[in-house]
Amino acid sequence: MIAVIGGSGNLGKGIAIQLALAGKEVVIGSRKAEKGKQIASELSNQIDKKIEGTGNLEAVEKSDIIFLSIPHFAIDNMLQQIKPGLEPGNILVSVIVPLSKEGDKFALQEPKEGSAAAKIALETPEKVSVISALQIVPAKRLQTPEKSLDSDVIVCGDQPEAKEKIMKIIEKIPDARAIDGGSLSNSNLVEAAAGLLVELTRIHGGEVSIRFKGI
After folding, report:
1. What is the DSSP letter of 129?
2. How many domains would you assign to the chain?
3. Which domain, by its residues, includes 82?
């Protein structure tokens, strides 16, 4: 089972949709279990695939892999909520980009730990792997599977087996290519690139994605 915590947001919904279409068992976690069930029902009807919904802790307790798709300022509170449900061998995947909006513009709010993923790793039990991925993927395109994703996905992490497992899952998304981005410390570079894409989308419209040549 794979949990998507923060499944009510655009990116979280898109991840849940793509995972379910890839044949994975998916559960959406929400602060209130009823909201999680409601969103799961709506997405299930949209794609004609079963998605479960429940509270955050319950979703984590059901799952081996947990995608965290929440605002960066909610990291501390969320980790306190879900820590009791984490077990050795679990994989926690950060898709978080620490952005703030200043007027019409978006700005990166780099945590003192260096990145949102690094902050999560410092506050996560030692035997739980932390991976970062999917920050540079257009959320709206994930929500519309009839469109080609047409995007590379950089995956960073310090545990090779966990990173390989997440890369294989991402490769099941049509027209997505998973690229090994090295250690988790490189997540700050990916999060900054994601911030640039958000700003370019604001300026030019559309859905900006990245393809890397020569890899």
Report:
1. E
2. 1
3. 2-204
User: Is 212 within a domain?
Assistant: no
Task: Calculate what percentage of the chain has a pLDDT beyond 70.
Answer: 100
pLDDT in tens, 12-44: 999 999 999 999 999 999 999 999 999 999 999
pLDDT digits (tens, 9 = 90+) for 62-108: 999 999 999 999 999 999 999 999 999 999 999 999 988 777 778 88
CATH code, domain with 155: 3.40.50.720
Structure tokens at 173: 């998304």
Q: Look at 175 and 110; give whichever has higher pLDDT.
A: 175
Amino acid letter, 92: L
Residue 44 lies in a domain: yes
Residues 6 or more apart whose CB falls under 8 angstroms from that of 5 comprise 12, 29, 56, 59, 60, 66, 67, 68, 69, 70, 78, 82
122-154 core/surface letters (b: 16 or more CB in 10 A; e: else): eebeeebbbbbbbbbbbbebbbebeeebbbbbb
Classify residue 190: in a domain, yes or no.
yes
- CA of 44: how far to CAs of 20, 49, 64, 173, in Å? 9, 5, 21, 17
Residue 215 placed within a domain: no
